[in-house]
UniProtKB/TrEMBL annotation:
GO molecular function: agmatinase activity; metal ion binding
Keywords from the UniProt entry: Hydrolase, Metal-binding
GO biological process: putrescine biosynthetic process from arginine, via agmatine
Pfam families the record matches: Arginase
Similarity comment text for this entry: Belongs to the arginase family. Agmatinase subfamily.
InterPro entries in alphabetical order: Ureohydrolase, Ureohydrolase_dom_sf, Ureohydrolase_Mn_BS
The protein's name: SPEB protein
Source organism of the structure: Sula dactylatra (Masked booby)
Amino acid sequence: GGDHTITYPILQAVAEKHGPMGLVHVDAHTDTGDRALGEKIYHGTPFRRCVEEGLLDCSRVVQIGIRGSSYDPDPYKYCWDQGFRVVPAEECWGKSLVPLMGEVRKQMGDKPVYISFDIDGLDPAYAPGTGTPEIAGLTPGQALEIIRGCKGLNIVGCDLVEVAPMYDVSGNTALLGANLLFEMLCILPRVKT
């Protein structure tokens, strides 16, 4: 729950125990902006703040499903400059993400990994209840492939953010979010499924 700002203090706490970590980040946006309305901390800046504080092992950051609007004419430049792997949504269209997750597993290795899943990574046809929907996103099946593809990694935490039930009269977004969180719980280390 909450907006993506909540990931920043969570990663501060997790990094205090585990050091810089890898990140599997599913989102429509990179969330690496510098500021909005004069503020440095908001839902579009958490991962820039995390980079600045050394909370992330930037060689082990992958962002999946990125697309849509941006405040920057070159929205991926900051991420690429840090060494992030950016997987735009169009590279995911119409195919299984199992091969991608095999690559991600190799990239993450056995070091600590955090999963941050913004519900707007999914297409609003499936998850309209979010504050910043962007068309042409991932499917629920692809979301499951991403999460299940993380099983066996050294996961030290995870979140699912940006669900806004008041924007979805059907309740599908909340249902999808709850199911994705359940899937995340199932892949945590030492969980028997």
